[in-house]
Amino acid sequence: MKIKKNIALSDTGFVFDPSTGNSFSANPIGMEIIRQIREGKTQEQIAEHILKTYQTDAGTFEKDYHDFLNMLNRFRLTENIQ
Amino acid sequence: MKKLQYERPVIQKLNTGLTNKFGTRTESDPVTHIDDLAVEKLIAQFGSPLFVLSEQTIRSAFRDASRAFKNRYPKVQFAWSYKTNYISAVCNVFHQEGSWAEVVSGFEYEKALANGVPGNKIIFNGPDKSENDLKQAITNDSLIHIDHMDELYMLKDIAAAANKKPRVAIRVNMDTGIFPAWDRFGFNYENGEAMEAVSKICNDTQLSLVGLHCHIGTFMMSTSAYGIAAKKLSEFALNIRKKFNRNIEYIDMGGGFASKNTLKGSFLPGTDASPTFDQYAEAICESLLNAGFTQENLPLLILETGRALVDEAGYLLGSVISNKRLSDGRRATIMDFGVNILFTSFWYDHKISPAQSFGSHHEDTVLYGPLCMNIDMLRENIPFPPLKKNDKVVVHTVGAYNMTQWMQFISMRPAVVMIGTDGKVNLIRRRETIQSIQHEEEMPLYLKNFKL
Amino acid sequence: MSKPKLHIAVTGLNAIDSPGPGIAVIRALKESLLFDARIIGLCYESLEPGIYMHELVDRTYKLPPPAAGKDALLKRLEQIHSEERIDVIIPNFDAELFSFIQLADQLKTAMNIHTFLPTTEQFEARHKVNLADYGKKHGILVPESKVIFTLHELYQAQDVFNYPFVVKGKFYDASIVYNREQATAAFHKISAKWGLPIILQEFISGEEVNVTAIGDGKGNTIGAVPMKKQYITDKGKAWAGISIDDNKLLDMTHTLIQSTKWRGGMELEIVKTEEDEYYLLEINPRFPAWVYLAVGCGQNHPEALVRLAMGEEVETWSAYAIGKLFIRYSYDMIVNLDEFEKICTLGKL
């Protein structure tokens, strides 16, 4: 899973896709995950970070993470991986 | 280091459509307590889902309504509409406030008697009163509101046989300028049917006509319709006096006042759109006072207001069972309560609040109940914060009709508690168990055994 | 002498093809010789053009959508007021007016924010649903109409109204229908968008004329300018119009304002038949999007409204320039993404 390179992220939670002109808004945890995916972190590394920082459990986060990735795919913010 | 509060990651496409003047409502402000009691604790103690009633809210709604009418009119009597919520503890709060009982079936009648309401303070309405119901009502000197001719004749016969002269009123329907006009109950005013019924009563010594009753509709947003109804009933009462020299002792305006709920399809929320008690009272009392009654013949004004008095006092607490993503990308959340116990979600967009705090992000969400039925939809589209399994929600304004129209379907009905004015919580209806249902069933012997 | 500075909040910044009146009102206020207006734009959507018209709008804040109700609106206005100090608010959408009218007293006493709005009674009585009674009461011709809730009632009404007739929504939208199929389609389309009831109205053929006016709440017409549409868009909006000399129209306006003691801005939509009869189609309880034509004709109605809101005595106008045209044009602004981002995420710009 890769986030498109040219996606613009701002501190206000605003996400802009210059290739489609679509804009999105994400909550702070959503932004954190997008940034980490972009930095090339694996799901395990991201989960470890989130579980260390926030009050949640591995099962909950795994469900939410996959749902979030599905939304990123649906919005075409990700790059196709062959 | 203390860990931060977790919230499900959310991303949403920004709506860049053209100006949409018809927006959505946001309801994400959390409601963590009801009358100072924590939602979490109430659920921990009594289970989820759970109906909660606030005694304080009931009493203050009643006092507000009572003040609005009594400040404008000298003789006012409320009668609690049992069908709106007949859990006995709720009825008795109204009886303690001075309400009579208004019932529409033998069952409700028995309930009112069992609650300790004197027979002569029970108003018996409705199209379905059995011979036994009427006998009992006559014996107890209750006020019988006649709905149709068949009932009128049956009542005459029963009264004659019992050698009693029951006090009766007739239910009148009329055109009050609203659509649709309710013309299926009672006798029509405009076509002379009501006067015909009155003359049948007055020309007979067996029944004593003491009142006139109407009930023009339900969830009435128009106060002027009440003004028209009160005016027509007053004219009718004065005509009856002229024609039969009979004094109409009371005019019963029925119920139908809107609560603060939001009807589906309504543009503004009910809190803004529904009239206040003062506005209803102004329309009704002005008509009565200007109708031409002499001071001593001014009829007693009876009100059978149900919904507007109890709706806001009721809450339904529930929990999230699961979150889903629908095929079109919309978020769906499944709650542990459905249309089986929240019957009113068929016609209201109930306000639903999360019971814990969240950040400012929310997602358009479809709220479903837990039933295995496609109709089990609580809200078609509600901007909701990212709830997770076991998070709690508070459904507002559910005090009217849900605790009477609920169904035992697929699962058992939940417990009902009342938070007293002293801040203590009382169980007023136990959560049903399998015994509550099985108790009424019988198994034929030959069906007892089987082999699988 | 320097002009006093007033902070005026204005809604209806959607200067699009079916425009809100906000930008026209703001232009009028900016041209006032009596006060210096700082304009606080109030918007509902991130793409309302007025948000980005910085030469007219000094700062813009997002409001909760009108359907959220008055409590949500009050909360947001308190927030904005704490950052901006608002002296006067001029709401310009039909759908939001009810909430603003309900809040008017609270705004004045709690925050010293002035408004000059119709009363609840005036607002309700002129509603499309009640227009027929209104006409009777004030001696004005109004097309026959019927309020309906179901398709069944629509089909029943076919016998009363001859085709074509008009199917109207509670707040916005109207279609002229020529047969049962079109009537059914219009009923579904409009009720899906604006809810019930639907209003059926007799179709009166003739020329449509409009009046923008302002009443002082005591029965006086402060100003009134009649206009004939010259060019109409496919959405039924005037793209160009001309001020006309029509005393009958003005008399009708005076009568209406006199008998209702109308308070605030208004637009009358009227049809003039071949027989020279004037039928009132609609009263909009706010300025129209073309209100700037009144300024061009010598009557600055928005300025007068602000002065009335501030409690000043305002003299009435009797004259206006006849034969002045307004011609609307569209214009593409160039906006940087960061501005759009701010209004989207922070709700202010």
Global outline of chain B: globular
* CATH superfamily grouping of the largest domain in chain B: Alanine racemase
What's the Cα radius of gyration of chain C?
20 Å
Which percent band covers the strand fraction of chain C?
15-25%
Beta strand count of chain C: 14
Molecular structure report:
The complex is a heterotrimer of chains A (82), B (452) and C (349). With 82 residues, chain A is an alpha+beta fold. Chain A is 48% helix and 18% strand. Chain A has helices at 28-38, 43-53, 58-74; strands at residues 2-3, 8-9, 14-17, 22-26, 78-79. In chain A, the strands form 2 sheets. Chain A has a 3-stranded antiparallel beta sheet with strand order 2-3-4. In chain A, strand 3 and strand 4 (22-26) form a beta hairpin. In chain B, helix 8 (224-244) runs parallel beside helix 10 (277-289). With 452 residues, chain B is an alpha/beta fold. Chain B starts with 10 loop residues before the first strand and ends in a 14-residue tail after the last helix. Chain B has 2 domains: 33-52 and 314-433, Lyase, Ornithine Decarboxylase, Chain A, domain 1, CATH 2.40.37.10; 56-311, TIM Barrel (Alpha-Beta Barrel), CATH 3.20.20. The longest helix of chain B is centred in the middle third of the chain and has 21 residues, at 224-244. Mean pLDDT of chain B is 92; it is low at 17-25. Chain C is α+β, with helices and mostly antiparallel strands and 349 residues long. Chain C has 3 domains: 5-116 and 332-345, Rossmann fold (3-Layer(aba) Sandwich), CATH 3.40.50.20; 122-126 and 205-327, D-amino Acid Aminotransferase, Chain A, domain 1 (2-Layer Sandwich), CATH 3.30.470.20; 144-202, 2-Layer Sandwich (Dna Ligase, domain 1). Chain C has helices at 22-30, 70-84, 94-111, 120-125, 131-138, 151-157, 180-194, 247-260, 292-296, 301-309, 337-345; strands at residues 5-10, 36-43, 59-62, 88-90, 145-148, 165-168, 174-177, 198-202, 207-216, 221-232, 238-243, 263-272, 278-284, 325-327. In chain C, helix 1 packs across helix 10. The two termini of chain C are 32 Å apart. The mean pLDDT of chain C is 90. Chains in contact: A-B, A-C, B-C. Chains B and C meet through loops of B and helix 2 and helix 3 of C.
